[in-house]
Structures are given as structure tokens and as C-alpha cells.
Amino acid sequence: MPSFTAHLAAPLSAPLTSRIDTGDTAWLLAASALVLLMAPGLALFYGGMVRSKSVLNMIMMTFGALAVITVVWVLVGYSLAFGDDVGGGLLGDPLQHLGLQSLMKPSADTWLSVPVILFAVFQGLFAVITGALVSGAIADRARFGAWIVFVAVWTVVVYAPVAHWVFDLDHPGHSGGWLANKVGLVDFAGGTAVEICSGASALALAMVIGTRIGFGKEAMRPHNLTLVMLGAGLLWFGWFGFNAGSALKADHTAAVVFVTTLCAGAAGALGWLGIERLRDGHATSLGAASGMVAGLVAITPSCSSLSPLGALVMGAAAGVICALAVGLKYTFGYDDSLDVVGVHMIGGIVGTVGIGLLATAAAPAGIDGLFYGGGVDQLGKQVLAAAVVLVYAFVASGIIGLVVDRLMGLRIDEEHEVSGIDLVVHAETAYDLHATAGTRTGTLLGHRD
After folding, report:
1. Residue 439 within any structural domain of the chain
2. Does residue 13 belong to any structural domain of this protein?
3. What are the φ/ψ torsions at residue 171 (nearest 5 degrees)?
4. Which residue has the higher pLDDT, 5 or 419?
5. Contact (Cβ atoms closer than 8 angstroms) between residue 314 and residue 300
6. Where is each Ammonium transporter AmtB-like domain found (predicted)?
């Protein structure tokens, strides 16, 4: 189950000051900053993967998501995700924490060892990353304004309800989501709510917007692999806040999660590189970065359920499977520009379902998967949750995409797509390398010799 199940605060009769732990609070503040760092990391990662004529637009889509999702989350998103349940485990009360006003006073902190307003912001940054991930599937061809509208509506209609199902646990005086509390899903940091949700949403949006001009015919290579590697490194760094921060405590669980996260990222890179070497004859930097991300995606739900050895197996499996899965877009004809489906949706499925196989009761989550004698019960729960989230996110995102496309138009004009989005939409270019080429100081100052 989500991290805070085993980490509720001291008995509610205890004084408030004894329930708020300064060490836990300091750790979650740091972890929240690490998760925030994942946004510019993702912007660089995605920006390097697109062609040079649309790099600024790609980066802006991530920063735009950061801005709009933060506003939506504060206004209503947190209430929908973590408010008292009003629909049989399907949705939180949208008015309970409107604008986070109810969390301003310490008296609101009654069930955690950290201030609830900090927990709200931490979870909001999860929403930011999930939404920003979707943009990678529509790179090179989406209207910026339409994207901002889509991701704002998507946060309310898709992410917040799924977060309620997966992350919102019952605690004294509060009813939470159905997958966590009724089904018994184990998802520590978001294999379903973040990874499968973003991947399925990306698939739907890519199908709505259509393929890029030249897809399948022209080479559309990353324009700057240095940016890709830098972005990947920042993502890995931030992922420790994403996973280990989800312990909500500076404790043994956080330490175990830190280790399994490290193991899976490393093994994922090696798994992907191995496939590349066998299939193509070369181990590439893009493959290393992509494999690392695939391993981290798979360990996100399972980081508290596996041993370090299990994390190595999980990461390697994700690296191999995702390396093979990214080619599905050519088989089925959907243009997932930056492989959000192949890495995040497929990797999320691997990690979520893999809990039912590789989990060990020796890990903090305390459950055994099939390979450790636990039977198929947990495996069935994991499969059900993965399927439900995938279908809901795909269908709902597709409907939102169709409506936005009908009202605003999701796609830029063909002429502008060919010439490049950056100049047309943002009136800027990423690389103004020749502005002063061949000039002299006097000329630059407006003088002639």
C-alpha cells in the first residue's frame, strides 16, 4: 500500500507537538525539493530528445505543466485526491481542502508525523511529474495553449481520482480510495497513479493528435544527447525524493527504498544496453538513459516490497522489456514521440504486476509474492489495479483530448510543424549560434569603421 500506511502519527490523544517530528519534516521538505527538481530534469531529458526546431516548446510544455498543475492542485486537486471520500472510494470531497485553507493551522495535523500541508505539496509535485510526462507523446506538433487547457482538465478528471484510489488510505475519521483500501493494491510511490496513468494518457492523446509529418519515413533523431544524459541524471537524483520521500519518515523504510531505487536504475540501464548490443551492435547513450528511467519506473511501485536482489531483477527486466516495447509504435502506427508508452506505461505494468511475483515479506511492505510462496492472491490484485487505471486513464484522456481538439485544435498548422514550433509559438530559438558570427565590435555597437 502507499507509504504512509505504516507511518501514521502517534495516538491522536497525544499533544500536537509530540506528533510532528522535525526530522521527518526536514526529510520530506528535502524530498519535495528533489521531486520538484525532476521537472527541469524531465524538461532537459525531453528537450534533448526532440529536434532542434522544437526544443524550447518541449521544455515549455514541462514548465507549463508545472505551473498549471500546481495551481489546480492547490485549488481543488488535493481535495479530490485526499479529501474525505464521497463516492464509494472513487473521489474525495472537492470542497474540503479548497485552496488548502483548511491546512494552514497546525491543528489540522492529526494523522501524520509531518505537517499535512507539506504532504499536500509533496503529492502535488507527483501530479506535476505525471502530467508533464504525457507531453512527451505529442512532441513536435501540439499547440501550447491547447496543451495547457488539456493538462489542467486532465489533472481534475484523470489524475486526482486515480490518486484517490491508489494513495488515499483510510485513517481515523477519514475514508479513502477503493484500490488501496478495498482491493489491497500495493503501490508505494505510483506505478499505477503515475506511470501507468501517464503512459495510458499519452497513448490516448497521441492517437487523438495523429502522427508527425514524416513519421516512419524520416529519421527523427534526438538533437542533443548531452541534454538527454544531463536530464536523465537529474531525474535519477530526484527519484530518490520521489521514492524514498514517500516513506514520509527518515527511517529504515526510507533507507531500504533508497537502496532498491538505486539498484533498479542501474540494472535497467544494463538491461536496455544489453538488448541494444545484441540487436543493433551498439550500446548507446540514449539507451543507457532510457534503460535507467525504465528501471526507475518499475521500482516506483515496488521499492518497499523487494530485496536489493529483487530490485536488480526488476530493473533489468524493465530495461529489457521496455527496450523491446518502444518499437510497438511502428507496429501499431501510433506516434508516441518520446516513448512515454513504451517506457512509462509498460514499465509501470512491469513494476506493478511484478510485486505479485517478486515481493518478499522481509522487505518493509511485508508481503510475499508468488515466487516467495505468497500464492496468486496479491498478483491478482496488482493485475486488476493496473488494468483499471490503464483503461480509465486511456478513455478519459482520449475524451478530454477530443473535446479540446474540437474546441481549440490540438495540433499546429502543417507549415508551422515543418518550419519548427519554437519560432512560431514562442518567438524564440534554442540555439542562436550565428547572431554575431562575422561581425566586429564596432558593427555590434552600431558604428562603421
Report:
1. no
2. no
3. -150, 170
4. 419
5. no
6. 26-431
